[in-house]
Amino acid sequence: MIKIAYERLEILFKMAEEEFSLHPLRSHRYVEMARNIAQKYNLKMPSYWRCRYCKGCKRFLKPGLNSKVRLNQQAVTVKCLECGEVSTMPYVKEQKSKRRKKIEPRTFQEGTHE
Ligand SMILES: [Zn+2]
């Protein structure tokens, strides 16, 4: 049952994405429906969709059209141009894994020489 609900979330967000350029109101409605499903089955929104709707006015956000995406030192900020709500998402995890990747090849080489 939960699997089907996740599938429906995916479908609704994809439809919202496709319809946005022609019928923005429809895609706002799709987001509303997706949120209702998530609430009903107590689902966690997939992270890649979580930044695609506004937490303030619950509208679908398309970067470049009705939202602004910016990076600062620690976070991605998404600003909704409809109501002005700003949501931030830290990317410390990604920074850490990037740093680790830089270090790991070096330690691996040292290991082979011994
Ligand atoms: Zn908004």
How does this structure look, described?
The protein has a single domain (2-113), classed as Immunoglobulin FC, subunit C (Single alpha-helices involved in coiled-coils or other helix-helix interfaces), CATH 1.20.5.420. The protein contains four helices and three strands; from the N terminus they run H-H-H-E-E-E-H. It has helices at 2-19, 24-40, 47-50, 92-113, and strands at 67-71, 75-80, 86-90. The radius of gyration is 19 Å and the shape is globular. The structure holds zinc ion (ZN). Zinc ion is lined by residues 54, 56-57, 59, 80, 82-83, 85.
Largest sheet: 3 strands, antiparallel
- Unreliable sequence segments: none
Tally of individual helices: 4
How do the strands line up in the largest sheet? 1-2-3
Q: Rg from C-alpha positions? A: 19 Å
CATH architecture: Up-down Bundle
Number of domains: 1
User: How would you sum up the global shape?
Assistant: globular
CATH superfamily: Immunoglobulin FC, subunit C
- What series of H and E elements makes up the topology? HHHEEEH
Give the overall pLDDT as a whole number.
88
Beta percentage is 5-15%
CATH level-3 fold name = Single alpha-helices involved in coiled-coils or other helix-helix interfaces
Short key terms for the protein model shown above:
single chain, alpha+beta, Single alpha-helices involved in coiled-coils or other helix-helix interfaces, 4 helices, 14% strand, binds zinc ion
